[in-house]
Amino acid sequence: MSLFGLGSRSQKTFRPKKGSPSGSKGVQLKKHIDATLGAGNLREAVKLPIGEDLNEWLAVNTVDFFNQVNILYATLTEFCTPSTCPTMTAGPKYEYRWADGVTIKKPLVVSAPQYVDYLMDWIEAQLDNEAIFPQKFGVPFPPNFQDVVKTILKRLFRVYAHIYLSHFQKVVSLKEEAHLNTCFKHFVLFTTEFGLIEKVELAPLEEIIESILQR
């Protein structure tokens, strides 16, 4: 099995890593993220660098979180199937239905892998849309940019919730729990720092999140 178990993934489920938005500026910010993460202090790593634009910082980190969740979920595609996970759930209390407001307007009950597939396609479309995520330095972000980011991150959280509450034992058996926990801690600290996900949305993993924030 290759790194993170990716040897068994389907081409459809796993997508190539997205590059940083906003041209060279995005690349510079990505280097800053990598350097601060490498130092091991996640609380410092999520803070807006002095003198940097908030939207640029949100854009680069959103791409990073998309890539991280993409890779994490790809390790589980063998175990998260329409038969094992016929609905997209986060434990027994929470079920997520899919709608993108464009091609699917009425929320659909779909299997977890179908939900994640719809989600990754939808996020990829947002990241590839230069009217939302500008690729050229100096091009302004749209007025609704932060709302789009909040929706992306809210939906990525649902994948984390499904992984933790439906597949954590499989993650442990793959010896990937430390990697999952670090990725999720980074995600929680970042979204908390900038108030990007409403508390009610975080309820399925409330205890884990409280533990992260108290450390």
UniProtKB/TrEMBL annotation:
Cross-referenced SMART domains: Mob1_phocein
Ranges for region Disordered: 1-27
Keywords, in A-Z order: Kinase, Transferase
Top-level taxon in the UniProt lineage: Eukaryota
GO MF entries: kinase activity
Name the UniProt record assigns to this protein: MOB kinase activator-like 1A
